[in-house]
Amino acid sequence: xxxxxxxxxxxxxxxxxxxxxxxxxxxxxxxxxxxxxxxxxxxxxxxxxxxxxxxxxxxxxxxxxxxxxxxxxxxxxxxxxxxxxxxxxxxxxxxxxxxxxxxxxxxxxxxxxxxxxxxxxxxxxxxxxxxxxxxxxxxxxxxxxxxxxxxxxxxxxxxxxxxxxxxxxxxxxxxxxxxxxxxxxxxxxxxxxxxxxxxxxxxxxxxxxxxxxxxxxxxxxxxxxxxxxxxxxxxxxxx
Amino acid sequence: xxxxxxxxxxxxxxxxxxxxxxxxxxxxxxxxxxxxxxxxxxxxxxxxxxxxxxxxxxxxxxxxxxxxxxxxxxxxxxxxxx
Lengths: 239, 82
Hints:
The complex is a heterodimer of chains A (about 240) and B (about 80).
Chain A: E1 5-10, H1 17-27, E2 31-36, E3 47-50, H2 70-80, E4 84-88, H3 90-97, E5 104-106, E6 114-122, E7 138-145, E8 149-151, H4 154-162, E9 166-171, E10 190-194, E11 200-203, H5 221-232
Parallel strand pairs in A: 1-2, 1-3, 3-4, 4-11
Antiparallel strand pairs in A: 5-8, 6-7, 6-9, 9-10, 10-11
Chain B: E1 2-10, H1 17-28, E2 40-47, H2 52-67, E3 73-81
């Protein structure tokens, strides 16, 4: 079996980089390496992970400065070639700032930093990031952000809905989509989207924090297992 | 040499929860004539050279590329000879 290689980008201020590395390397058994923000070489990785954190102190806007770091030129090139990229939390913000994903992440509706467990309904299982979930499956996963309120103009919103680009939506535990289940005011309860080509995913919740039952939930490992399956054709064994 | 004063604000169509929170505080202080608070950023920077048109073009490009995210923000700027 060909081993899938993940690269976790480290910006000054990243703080979920080691969690992401642990998830893919130690839990999934994939190959993994860190990529420094000043590097201009992706070291041959199949998947780039832009981790959570506060890159460049969130100065100006979340993700606005990191988007111009040397590694991001390569990440944009990788995505343009059809390579897989996943941005989690701050990584999602970087992807919208860099234009790899539509929309923007505004300040949470209630202004609070929200740090809690939420439920997501899996809306599209046909992507490289969600093929190991069942349609409509509800997963438990944490969010931790101050700027996660997904916004876009109405035309773009209609387009991403029509294209099936919404992969995850904030939901109740039974899968009902409601305002009460929306932690930040995101339009249409959107928690995660892919680009039109389907090779770039951004999501505010943290799948890398829920990959081991021992730590409360393994519901997030499906995101990484889906990538391994999409690239190598192999379904990673459950640990 | 010019000094640019750039204002970046959320687009009018976007709810500004920070502005709303400040408006509530003003109301509780009984500033009855004040309303519709919008919060933005003010950025000052120096522009080298004496060509006003070139300075405007440079600042405008900087706003579009970095200083504002036009998906959610509008920007305006003034140039003052420094």
